[in-house]
Amino acid sequence: MFVLIYSAVRVPVIFFMPPNFPSIISSLYELMSPCSLCPHNCKAERLRGVVGRCKSGALARVASYNVHNGEEPPISGTRGSGTIFFSGCNLSCVFCQNYPISQLGHGKVVNAQQLADMMLELQEKGVHNINFVTPTHVLPMIVESVYIAKQSGLTLPLVYNCGGYESLTALKLLDGIIDIYLPDIKYADTVKAEKYSQAPDYPEVNRAALKEMFRQVGGLRLDENGIGVGGLIIRHLVLPNGISGSVKALEFIARELSPETFVSIMGQYHTANKSDKIPELARPITSKEYSLVIDAAENLGMKNCWIQELE
Ligand code: SF4
Questions:
Q1: Whose CA is nearest to atom 4 of ligand 1?
Q2: What's the CA gap between 146 and 144, in Å, rounded?
């Protein structure tokens, strides 16, 4: 359960110039083969079917799509968020709670029209937004499908729900397409980022990505019903034993973005994937660990944070 400890400011909706979809789609596909869609830059010839570190080749795979009511209040609202979960991931987190999807590849191959139809079906169900979960490695296919869906009447805000390990080149191509960025800030320390997610440059890359997202969409904007229509929300999962570097992560947000940034401080960590065999990760966080992080947010003057009730 999420609790808003400060109140949000309601501001008018901002309208953007329409993006040049054909040119953006073509640029994104160019990044995909040899692949530099994400900072791993592993150069896999994905359009020829070669699979990269993210375990993805030429086509997107979808594990599920549905109406989701468990996101932050401005995302799920009263009618739910239209989530589309993609298979594969560019991070390899040892504690991933979705690892059958992200690392074992569970899911069904879809083409652009099928993906567009999923968005339109979710819109038909009345959701507040279309929420792309783990989108980074399948961006060209997503934007191509959005273009098709928009021509058939898709009007909902688009949510980019990612692990925060993003290429600046790819992100810049999304300017004017994505309405709400919902990235993680997972680590503040390169050694831990390498040990637990095999991405030693995560802290540096992640901070640059968050700055770019903030530049594009600014702070979270709500409609008259408190539903998000644009802006940035950052998620931070507190890990046991200070592994997530929570205080440094919050300091970055407060000082280099804005203390008014909406942050979801998550205390729901539980062991999954390989983490029950890693002693420092083999337990939930304590209430004391969580309280220290919440206190740090308050001390930094952060205006908008969600916190969770620990089980
Ligand atoms: S998106 Fe996948 S294939 Fe492309 S650079 Fe990243 S990990 Fe490699």
A1: 35
A2: 6
